[in-house]
Write a structure and sequence with these properties.
7-stranded mixed beta sheet; homotetramer; alpha/beta; about 40% helix
Chain lengths: ~350, ~350, ~350, ~350
């Protein structure tokens, strides 16, 4: 990476925010309870519950997103039950069949703008009508979505109502929940998520933690015996405090939202700059993940200076995926825009 | 835990050695490659290979021991193939059926002193003779064993030869490899393990790391496509560097063996003290894990002052499991012996 | 097999009773509903329910015993839950890890005489005390057992009470249920089984059917969505009537018990003959499965004339497993005894 | 079903051809080897191999299609490997997630006319480029397809070449292989299938057998240890001869093709009649499965007299799925056409 000016590949390029590492160092040689039952994890769990205003929720800290997704989904479904997800859903595309590996089919619909709609869910439910087909039982969506989009409160309400009507769990992958909730375009509050979802996670890895996600279980039916599932899937860390300490540091004084705000601010500044130079976007930019559309020649030149993924081939254009993070310096945005101006 | 003097429950009570956390802090805001392909993980992998003198090995860093075991075993076996393990093996007893959850039976033998013998393996192979039974394909042992014992070089050679003769992989759970290799009673070198095993892991969690284990794959047949297995099981951390940085810090200047040496020294000092007071042991103490035998009355009084597990009920006696760690202060050993003297 | 006088290897050596095949032929070219919803299967289901006096039971017809076991167990357990079985249990020994392949550990106890005891179950429950271990949830026993033994009503009551107390399902493998229920030594009725078990199956394959078992589900909690499980595991035959027709033929006029009675009568006659010649048995013979103990020299000579398995090596003796079936002719028993007399 | 004139729902409405049942009856009380090692199964296996001109193939008899598919696919794939199939593929739609339940993702493409094209396969291979995605390893197609279509020799050759180039197994679901091979529109021979596929099955259930399919494994890499897979998945019948006897009866004197020919002849006669009355088809009818398009009013009236499935809703039209079988009498076709004429 060294030879390029900057990487916009992801929001997990930088290791961890200094305050997070400082909190870990401050533990010193204190002896802690193991497997997530230490005082740090317990306090961090309380902070999560306060933040989302869900005092009766269960909170579990897990090393990464794929592991979080697969443990929760494995715990929720019986063998013949299936997940409904948008075609762009991370579990469908980029987790190497992790859900199928625990035995479950993922039924996908195209959705719109990378977002699943209540009508998509209804269609899947109607189609799966007898025992020759799997039975849909859990809806998986991401907030923000893999396209960078955010569900509106109304959209999420419709999805939630549709789920309750059809006996479906609603599970929200919150790898980028911070970015979503700190977007100027969002009309949801953390509390709304807790009211509408049966489970979701508050992502740490992509928002300044060294590693770790906070899984929140709201539906009582999903709470019992969850630690058995965690242990069986290798998700119960002996030193669970390693994540608890981090989340305490992130949530105690607002650091979590502060970091997410910077990521989004940098993302939108980048979007503005790109837009002002006359380039369009695959979806309207609202968080720290943008998908600008560049002519191939421009993209090729940018690739020589910056790191980013090509999201979609559009013939003589390419849709590029660009991410900013809590650590992205403003001057890198300015520099990129200047370079883009020169190239274009 | 706070009100008791000290916990001898495990070697993962303390979070992480300061030098490990310092190394993490030193990374700063550098942008790193993701999913274990960063420079720290690459350098740490080289250090592992140098340490075990196996230049062509593959090294993967994984968040915890159960996850490491299940990914390796899942990658190695076809559906009808099984694991052979000692009855006390961690995967058989204390991983909530993680191996069965990925589809494989664990065939156990009692072994001796918590160690599996080549003759045990032969017996399992002979017994499983046709397609109505699973086919043994991988031998799982721990070094040091769950009983605290260490395999001798001769024992391990016999097991290794037995495995090669019978087309069995030999996989060694090295959660406490450091303690084993730094025992004054060991006659094995790291290099011997690499020569005899098809895969093993160098445990970090129980030897001063915040979290993480280094899985070493030696058999070429097990190397291909391993990252697919990691990703599918949720074991490929986006910020893989979080482990790589730690292992570089542990291995670069000998910290790993230094920490293990302290754990073992404290364990053996504790064993000596207990022995001098006339108590026996379930197995001869050779590492940082001891199983002393106390009369129930003594054990009850100790439990009021110290934390430790009861390993086995022996009627009017109890076999207690006690562990020391890299962080155990010598005065805690002295204190415990003094308390035990008073109680006895 | 042709050159030997007779095979005592199993009770499934002969294809099917003529009346069963006649019933299949009588269907002619009638068009039938598929997937077990045809009139024959429905009537056969009613006959099963009448026989066991359980009008609210659900009955499903499945091609074979291993498939029946794995579908039922897969439907009943959540991922971290486990089966408790005797060490000689068919699912533990002779189904190639079928239960582990659907994700579940089988916890075994030695039991006595091939039978599991309520105290064995209690011991397993007590031992599995936290989320680091699987949670026992279903008890598997066979009636008659793999050793040929039959549980007494009192033994089964104790097991049933123990299961209910500990929130365990009781599932009975009835591959040889006919033989058990038609033994002069049995004090159980079909109805008792239905009252005590949560599910069991009435075996057809080993009692005159061409193939097929009748799975009976009594616990309401296990009934819902069962056809999804059947279909997913490949156990829902398009021509389900192929089994339904057979069970109607077996149950309508008492053929099922008639065939089992002959199998047992021949078994006990064989046992008497062997006993009168001074040979002992590993377990007291009570059904159509005997385990006589022969000196190696005698066994070797018998193997030249008859087919049977060696069950256990006892040094200079061998425990031989011998089975009679619905089709075993009395003269074969007489012949065997005469041959044994000459050999001994 | 009784009150309607006839069912065109499927080709498995009638139980079994009389000669098949006669063959079963002729076995009498002969004692047979178990688990598919009997003389009938061995002879039937030879007949299959002769028919497809593949003397070194392995043949296994399995109770049903879903079970056959899942055992073969489970045996062929490592955990991260996936199946490529057409969107209409039976394993994707109508087997209740059986393939996902054994851990594998099914990647689908729309294809054309219900048939997958080599270019579809290439596209899936190209798209799955790294360890964050599953790795395609086996192509599943059906012959005849679920749409009733038949692959041409050229199409199958292209698929086969594409598979070999991309290290993909080609597996063909032959539930309706008989109908395909006896269509006047086919340009493939049984031998061609054997030359191009790595494995396929010759369906019995839908072509006059009581139950059972003959799985043919051609690729040596898929042969070893296959009986372990069969047993583990509950697919190794104790009385394997129950299928072997049937296949011997079907293949010895040409009965298999004779029955398939009748099914196809009746199907095409039905197609002709429908076409002559001016109705179109979703795909050109070439086998015993037709998908005619009727106005809703016509379909509603037909449903009152005949049994058949609605395959697809087309607004004010419906695409109906109709099947004929080995047992369909010509007068039923005439009657249906007459009724359709009256209704239309």
């Amino acid at each position: 990476m060294g030879i390029k000016k900057y990487s916009f590949r992801s929001d997990y390029c930088e290791l961890a925010h200094p305050k997070v590492l400082e909190a870990l160092a401050n533990v010193g040689r204190a002896q802690l309870d193991s497997y997530g039952l230490d005082e740090f994890s317990l306090r961090a769990g309380e902070l999560v519950k306060t933040k989302i205003n869900a005092p009766s929720a269960d909170v579990h800290f897990i090393a990464g997103g794929t592991l979080t997704n697969l443990v929760l989904i494995s715990s929720a479904l019986r063998p013949f039950e299936a997940v409904v997800a948008p075609e762009s859903g991370h579990i469908f595309v980029h987790e190497t069949g992790a859900i199928e590996a625990i035995g479950h089919k993922v039924c996908v619909m195209r959705g719109e703008g990378g977002k699943l709609r209540a009508t998509d869910i209804e269609a899947v439910v109607v189609e799966h009508c007898d025992e020759h087909m799997v039975k849909p039982r859990l809806v998986y969506i991401s907030l923000s979505a893999e396209s960078g989009a955010i569900y509106t409160k109304e959209e999420l309400l419709e999805i939630s109502r549709c789920c309750r009507k059809n006996n479906l769990y609603l599970y929200i992958d919150g790898a980028r929940l911070g970015a979503a909730m700190n977007s100027p375009f969002v009309d949801l509050k953390y509390e709304d998520i807790a009211n509408m979802a049966d489970a979701f996670y508050v992502g740490g890895t992509k928002n300044g933690a060294l590693f770790g996600e906070a899984l929140v279980i709201l539906n009582n039916g999903l709470k019992a015996d969850f630690r058995f599932h965690l242990k069986q899937k290798g998700a119960l860390l002996a030193k669970g405090a390693a994540i608890g300490v981090q989340f305490e540091a992130l949530l105690r004084d607002g650091l979590y939202d502060e970091l997410a705000s910077n990521a989004v601010a940098m993302g939108l500044k980048l979007a503005d700059g790109i837009g002002e130079l006359g380039y369009g976007f695959l979806y309207p930019p609202v968080t720290n993940l943008l998908i600008p559309i560049f002519p191939l020649g421009v993209a090729d030149k940018l690739h020589m200076i910056y790191d980013f993924y090509d999201w979609q081939n559009l013939g003589d254009m390419t849709a590029a995926r660009m991410l900013t993070s809590w650590a992205t310096p403003e001057e890198m945005i300015d520099g990129f825009i200047a370079d883009l101006k020169n190239i274009g």
